[in-house]
Design a protein that fits this description.
With about 190 residues, this protein is mainly α. About 75% of the residues lie in helices and about 0% in strands. The longest helix has 26 residues, at about 50-75. InterPro entries: Homeodomain-like_sf, HTH_TetR, Tet_transcr_reg_TetR-rel_C_sf. Pfam families: TetR_N.
Length: about 190
């Protein structure tokens, strides 16, 4: 009887796809994914039904982790809704200057998948809605007169900061977005 000591094919596919899809985009070739995961093509189809299913699972897993990061960031900022909201922009400012930062994986997936019916779009929409809801809750607690609209504005700032961090390194988009967020929050 043999004992498995390393990750199995499913886990290797997820890890390789997470890394490659983030760094190279959703249009990475299947052969490159299989080679990076050191698995046979059969494993991709057995575990995910194909590349589309793998993309969906990678995005679903990332969305869970990223939404949890937003919640942790806000919780670490204390109980003041204003500080909790601004902490998000401080955190994003830290993220966009990390080595290996390639932008927002959800925006990249939406732009890279031309088929509007691709199941990954549902994951990205749900993720953005979760972030929107987190922001709106804080804005409501703050007593903002238009919390839903303000959450839309903050979400645009988040997307823009992540895009600018990837396309214009060295420009400190996090600091600029935080300053704009202060104006949105103050209304």
């Amino acid at each position: 009887m043999s004992v498995r000591t390393g990750p199995g094919p499913r886990e290797r596919l997820l890890e390789a796809a997470d890394r490659l899809i983030y760094s190279q985009g959703v249009n990475i070739g299947v052969d490159a994914l299989l080679k990076a995961a050191n698995v046979a093509r059969r494993s991709l189809y057995e575990h995910f039904g194909g590349k589309d299913g793998l993309i969906v699972e990678v995005l679903r897993s990332a969305a869970e982790a990223d939404a949890a990061d937003y919640a942790r960031t806000m919780d670490a900022a204390g109980h003041d809704p204003r500080e909790r909201l601004l902490a998000v922009f401080d955190r994003i400012g830290e993220i966009v200057v990390l080595p290996g930062f390639h932008g927002c994986r959800y925006l990249a997936a939406d732009l890279g998948l031309a088929d509007p019916g691709h199941p990954a779009h549902e994951i990205t929409r749900d993720y953005r809605q979760r972030v929107h809801d987190l922001l709106e809750r804080e804005l409501t607690a703050l007593g903002h007169p238009h919390p839903g609209h303000a959450a839309d504005q903050l979400l645009i700032l988040i997307d823009g900061t992540l895009a600018a961090g990837a396309t214009r390194p060295g420009t400190a988009p996090g600091a600029a977005a935080r300053e704009l967020a202060e104006h949105v929050i103050a209304l």
